[in-house]
Amino acid sequence: MSTEYPVAQGQAQAEAAAPSDVLDATTLAELREIAARYPEPRSGLLPMLHLVQSAQGRITPEGIEACAEVLGISAAEVNGVATFYTMYKRRPVGDYHVGVCTNTLCAVMGGDLIFERLKEHLEVGNDETTEDGSITLEHIECNAACDYAPVMMVNWEFMDNQTPESAVQVVDDLRAGKPVHSTRGPRLCTWREAERVLAGFPDDRADEGPTAGPASLAGLRIAREKGWTAPASTLASSGEETDRD
Amino acid sequence: MTDALTPVLTDNWDAERAWTLAAYEERGGYAALDKAFAMAPDDVIDAVKESGLRGRGGAGFPTGMKWGFIPQDNPRPKYLVVNADESEPGTCKDIPLMMASPHTLVEGVILSAYAIRANTAFIYVRGEVLHVIRRLQRAVQEAYLAGHLGTDIHGSGYHLDLIVHAGAGAYICGEETALLEGLEGRRGQPRLRPPFPAVAGLYASPTVINNVESIASVPSIIANGPAWFAGMGTEKSKGFGIFSLSGHVRNPGQYEAPLGITLRELIDLAGGIREGHELKFWTPGGSSTPLLTPEHLDVPLDFESVGAAGSMLGTRALQLFDETTCVVRAVLRWTEFYKHESCGKCTPCREGTWWLTQTLARLEKGQGTEADLDLLLDQCDNILGRSFCALGDGATSPISSSIKHFRDEYLAHLTNGGCPFDPVASTAFAPAGASA
Amino acid sequence: MSTTDKAPDLATDLVTLTIDGVQVSVPKDTLVIRAAEQVGVQIPRFCDHPLLDPVGACRQCLVDIPDAGNGRGFPKPQASCTLPVAEGMVVNTQATSEVADKAQQGVMEFLLINHPLDCPVCDKGGECPLQNQAMSNGRGESRFAASGGIKRTFPKPINISAQVLLDRERCVLCARCTRFSEQIAGDPFIALAERGALQQVAIYEREPYQSYFSGNAIQICPVGALTSADYRFRSRPFDLVSTPGVAEHDSCGAAIRIDHRRGKVMRRLAGNDPEVNEEWISDKDRFAFRYTQVADRITYPQVREDGVLRPASWPEAFAVAARGLREAGAAAVLTGGRVTAEDAYAYAKFARVALSTNDIDFRARPHSAEEASFLASHVALSGGVTYADLEAAPVVVLLGLEPEDEAATIFLRLRRAARRGRTQVVSVAPYSSRGLRKMNGRLVPAVPGAEVEAIGSLKDAAHGVTKDAVILVGERLAATHGALSAAVELAATTGARLAWVPRRAGDRGAVEAGALPNLLPGGRPVTEAAARVDLAAAWGVEALPAKVGRDGNAIVAALTKGDLGGVVVGGVDPDDTSDPAAFRAALAAARFVVSLELRATDVTAAADVVLPVAPVTDKAGTFVTWDGRPRDFDAVLSNPSSLPDLRVLAGIGEELARLGQGSSLGFRTVADVRAEMRALGPWDGARPAMDAGKPPRAPRAKAGSLALATWKQLVDLGSMQDGEAHLRATARPPVARVSPATYESVFGTPEGEPGHSRLATVSGDRGSVTLPVEVADLPDGVVWVPARSFGRGVLADLASPGSRVLLRDAPSPDSPGHALKGAVT
Q: Are residues A7 and C203, on separate chains, in Cβ contact within 8 Å?
């Protein structure tokens, strides 16, 4: 006698994932590696989700489940985190994520016009990707580069002091496959490569780009010109132990 | 009398490859470690207390006092967390610091962690600054290899691990308890206080959370002595700070000066308001600090004086807007920002920003009535001091202050049937002489 | 954390403060919102819940604090739900402070801007804290609407489980539900998602809100955001009559509130009993009540005539039953564990007085002589271990007990104790169940049948079983010979206290009422002549049978063999019994079967007389909880034709007496029985000693066979969950669990292909079942399956617990046409 069980299943059936959606063993190992960096594994969740984006181009169900599995928390909790932070994307992101700052200062300084121009030029709306999958356009909030307003970020690299024309040039070059450099950083990598760095797996571009952009040096330059400095140390400069009192 | 500008944190930003360990050490970097290791940790705390250093993240809480709150008899591990989630609109000082000289921060972390007896520290850096993260990662790696981090640092027996943690896009994580939530892999929603992080912070353990600039200031205090630091600035706002000028000024950028400098002085240094225009309104410390006007140009930019002028020093994020700028448009945009960034935890901020945005948007389009201004102010009254954290308070600042200073401009939108300003005129690439 | 946390000394740790001008003294650490209740001020609130950690999220409870007790006030209104009282504090609530009143009105206005105006069609309407507080603390008209505001909208309700629906528009994001799920139930399958005004409660799309406690989230929702599929649109709160009751699904005695309308129960809610279930009940206690409303309810007496059951009047049925029993010769009584203590007493008295036998057993499940001895020596009349004791104990040992499935209220208590870090749960079990993990419990793995050794190992000081510990013994432990004796010995050696936790609501009451072959009512041992004499005198009969009676298994055997001729069966499901086939055979062999039942069953089908009995809603009664707490309840519905078992037995007894057999029972009503039980009182003589008895023949293990471990999951195919499909749909899917090595030995490959479940067929001496297989931390050579989650369950369709079964690879679910395709998760 064999029994088929008649219990009705309320649980949604997990559909078998297509092989291409499944996180490979390397990525799974790296997810565990991230969790192991921290005194408590769950601290790894934000970088782990960055790694999921790097591996899969967005936050996928497989990625959420893998994070939940590695951390021993519910997928609902991972989902709650993944939907809280705006850098996590539920739809596939293009090779280049172009963010135009439209917070007040950049907007006033031209960010609104740049964003409008790019929408027209790329024929996409906010948070949409061009048909060729190359560019995802989004308006973003203040990215801490107000002295370079209006600012655009490409894969979270600074493109300072933009104009509508320069912004169009940047996206055209990117779509044409030409190398583009951050105005204050390295040659741009892809969005997925960038996400890998955010997950804590550095690439080799740290030494590219300048120390600081011109605006960052505005005050220092004047100080140098005028010979202004901070006062001298109040301590003996012998480098030996000093009695503070 | 000190010079008008006092480069300390910014002093090596023009050095060749300043971000590298070699360049940093060449200028005496990491020398403060041995000095500190020769001191008892409590003496390091005392030195920072004596220096008068106040938190550079906006609130201005005395840093040494914060460290002193760590209960050293608590058997749990202690943690140091650097708040590098710089996201307050207008604020742009920590990002260039970490880009140009990440080792300044790393050295500050080691000194500060030593003082509070933490063996694990974190730099929680916003995720949207890829190259800064690269440089931090590299700096930490170099510091480990050089023996500035890890076990038995400089033979002192002290060990410290430092983890660079990238955030993922949430302004609220600049709030220290929300940041801890993010660092624990949770939604960045602020925690109930008490318990304060000093007692039960990261992993319910005693935790100090300090702004990048605060921690980066520590090496100079240890190296040069607290009296040196305290010799700059004003009586209650001691030391130097980075002032970030942005907007309609000829040379926007970072200006490191003693606290107490005025905006008039800074604008002069920055070459004046852009050609042919005049200052209309400005924020002293980011969008969450009430707007000020040209009448406040001579307010000393220290915690007390800006407070007395009805605003807050905040992060010294001086966003300058000239007369081509529509204040209603500016305020609406900031309000949309707060709505976007409200974490959703508490009612006044979550629902209030939703409503404020709608009321403002109608006003900006010239719809509504003058009564809507009072409605706005009443909504602000119901949010300010009623929200769970300061985000809600901050959301009301631009609205209340702009209605206070520019009520007529709001009314002009109503009489004009829309915004009377030409948005092109205010852009950086506007043709010369364009005006509203 | 300290294990010696002192309870606050209420007399000395009082704090005095002034609220709205009234001085009040409350215990230290009291929150202002609750201190205000002491002076009669209700501060409006949403996120606040006394049993959840304070969160201060909704900001509805803002009050003005002009003096924090240090002479200085707070510049801003403070959330009274997170602020502890301080000596000398001055609090002004909305009643006396304009600041507080405006702050509250402001928050209420904000809460309403995005709230839909669908109160007329909302289930919560009429009992809605938002509605009520908007009336008491809100403004009359909406400035938001007047200023042309546009509401945030969401698609109307979505299912977050088969039972629970979520209407996101109505949600005020107080997070009570998510905090309950995380903090209390340990099932964080709902969590906040998104942020800002778009924040919402959400499940993960592939992981529904499957929690045994999900109904509590619905109940504590302060708006109509969470509703149950079961109750949605069924009635209006103001049409309902509420009656307090006691949950009948386990031995925990959870207080419930039964809401009914025009003679029909519409819903059940958790009652509030701080000493028992606080404000929580399991979904089974909440939703499983429609078994009384299903079509196969028996509504009139029937007697068998010419082989067919036909309707009969009560007098005729009594008479036929009495005549049949008398003519059948020796007769026995079998009662299930679901009867009330009063009914159990009636069965116990009926057996002795009307049938002159001690052949009575309430244990309609695997049982043993050792267990009967244990119940007489260590359970009857025992007490003293309370729910609070569980939380105070440094160590709680679970032996043959899976609280989340079998005693949900105990589970919640232990989870809280563990979450506070005060209590270590240690479980002798085949594997670390989800419930055990949620209690941060430590597993002492035991192969079924080898529990004795595992229990003995707990004497090792490393386990921390001291005199402060509590040992909870589940009824399943009876299945292993010597295990109960080992538990008793563990308690004796360590000084730890021991309590027996049966599965059913009536079990403990049946022990006390004497529905056992070796026990008379009031814990009187059959073997004690003095006890029999006392009782005979009290009952006004000459003598009581002196011989210890047959237990359930022996009754079944004797019926089959012909040694017994008649049997009275009250509420027994054959598939629950030790050997369902043998039970059915015994019914077939019996010369006369009287069935007291609620619904048509295999017993009624075999019965000669069928007598309908009242469900718990139709009668007063008492359930005695595992901790010896009598939980009495009144009838919820007035249904004169619905008779309790005791009335039916009294009727048969009277007819028997008329025929000259025995004497009448001397009662007809619940009140009569209660008075009689009270007058009788407990046995005050010596307790019988524990006697393990002879070990049974050990079965020979077949080569490659596995030991069968099993227990019933909380939500399964049990007949008392019939009629509520939504509840049943939330059942945990049946799976077989084995160790990694066993898995590999069956399938030839290690476990670990994501997205694929392997199927295996488990075969025992009573049948076989094919289930998906999961790996868990079981000992090698053991397989666990749920006892009542497929077919007729393990006992009927597979094998006896602890016996040997075989496990073999079954065809892949992916192969076309497989019967189980699509049912694999």
A: no
